[in-house]
């Protein structure tokens, strides 16, 4: 049964910001953004109207839109998300861009704490010369990541465990990347993120605990590793570079996100002379 309310009327009456209410209409009616305009005079099905009103009420409690629609775009791919995983952030796309341009050919790359799988999958879709592994401690997160890999057609091997503990030491690894929890528990910003899994956002200590653990674990593989890249907070660049150098990853560099904030620190093995094109005159 159709209700008396048209799509246009619902959009006019909802007090949510336009992009949010449009996202909810698209999700419920299965229409595209453009169709919500061209079919604006279409009366909503009663069940759709009821669902939209429920979702609007949930949104007003602070529930993020991606958890309501079950989807978040990252690197132009639609990723399934639910409250078991952190919602992918555009800042992290800079890390993926860096990987695509800098990971040496035919590398085995591992993404630690993969969550929705957004880093591993986006990279794997661009660089099929590489072998992509991804780990997470949460089986629920791995289930979503595996589903995303399948839907998006990416070849990623998943393993469960804490950071590198998920991988046998004999396993060849060339590049390690991670976007670990790095928000300090006292950061007021955390309150706004209360619908996301807390353990994916904070280490419950000083924001650097997980980064210390990952870099220490990576240190045991330093002889064969070619690169290490870790995302962190805008004010953690200097501290993370110190953790890198203290563990033997000399001369790390901190790079910025699209907003110009320090966002990830990288270390790359210097080429040996026989590998480089450098020829003295
Ligand atoms: N960048 C995220 C935020 O500040 C946090 C990501 C993380 O802890 N890994 O919302």
Secondary structural class: alpha/beta
Strand order of the largest sheet: 7-6-5-8-9-11-10
Could you tell me the radius of gyration in angstroms?
22 Å
Shape: elongated
User: Which kinds of small molecule does this entry bind, naming each only once?
Assistant: glutamine
List the total number of helices.
12
Strand content: 15-25%
The H/E string reads EHHHEHHEEHEHEHEEHHHEHEE
Biggest sheet statistics: 7 strands, mixed
Mean pLDDT: 96
Helix content: 25-40%
Question: What's a concise summary of this model?
Answer:
The chain is of the alpha/beta class and 281 residues long.
Secondary-structure map:
Elements: E1 2-6, H1 7-13, H2 18-29, H3 33-38, E2 43-45, H4 46-60, H5 65-69, E3 71-74, E4 77-80, H6 91-102, E5 108-112, H7 118-126, E6 131-136, H8 139-152, E7 157-160, E8 175-178, H9 189-192, H10 198-201, H11 209-219, E9 227-231, H12 237-246, E10 253-256, E11 262-268
Helix pairs in contact: 2-4, 6-7
Bound molecules: glutamine.
The site of glutamine (GLN) has 9 residues, from loops.
List keywords for this structure.
elongated; single chain; two-stranded antiparallel sheet; 18% strand; 7-stranded mixed beta sheet; 281 residues; binds glutamine; 12 helices; alpha/beta
Structure characterization notes:
This protein is α/β, with parallel strands linked by helices. 39% of the residues lie in helices and 18% in strands. It has helices at 7-13, 18-29, 33-38, 46-60, 65-69, 91-102, 118-126, 139-152, 189-192, 198-201, 209-219, 237-246, and strands at residues 2-6, 43-45, 71-74, 77-80, 108-112, 131-136, 157-160, 175-178, 227-231, 253-256, 262-268. Helix 7 (118-126) links the parallel strand 5 (108-112) and strand 6 (131-136). The longest helix is centred in the N-terminal third of the chain and has 15 residues, at 46-60. The termini are far apart. Glutamine binds next to loops.
């Amino acid at each position: 049964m159709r209700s008396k309310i048209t799509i246009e009327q619902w959009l006019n009456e909802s007090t949510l910001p336009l992009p949010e209410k449009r996202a909810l209409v698209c999700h419920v009616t299965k229409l595209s953004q453009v169709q919500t305009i061209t079919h604006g005079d279409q009366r909503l099905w009663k069940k759709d109207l009821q669902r939209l009103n429920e979702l609007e009420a949930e949104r007003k409690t602070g529930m993020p839109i991606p958890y309501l629609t079950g989807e978040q775009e990252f690197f132009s791919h639609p990723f399934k998300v639910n409250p078991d995983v952190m919602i992918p952030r555009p800042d992290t796309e800079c890390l993926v861009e860096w990987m695509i341009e800098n990971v040496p050919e035919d590398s085995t790359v591992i993404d630690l704490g993969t969550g929705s799988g957004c880093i591993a999958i986006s990279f794997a879709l661009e660089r099929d010369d590489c072998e992509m592994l991804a780990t997470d401690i949460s089986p629920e997160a791995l289930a979503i990541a595996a589903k995303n890999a399948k839907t998006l057609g990416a070849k990623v091997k998943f393993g469960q465990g804490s950071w590198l503990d998920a991988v046998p030491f004999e396993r060849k690894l060339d590049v390690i990347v991670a976007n670990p929890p790095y928000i300090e528990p006292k950061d007021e910003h955390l309150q706004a993120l209360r619908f996301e899994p807390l353990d994916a956002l904070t280490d419950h200590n000083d924001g650097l605990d997980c980064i210390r653990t990952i870099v220490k674990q990576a240190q045991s593989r330093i002889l064969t590793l070619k690169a290490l890249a870790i995302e962190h907070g805008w004010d953690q660049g200097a501290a993370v570079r110190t953790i890198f150098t203290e563990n033997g990853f000399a001369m790390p560099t901190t790079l910025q996100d699209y907003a110009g904030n320090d966002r990830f620190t990288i270390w790359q093995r210097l080429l040996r002379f026989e590998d480089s094109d450098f020829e003295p005159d």
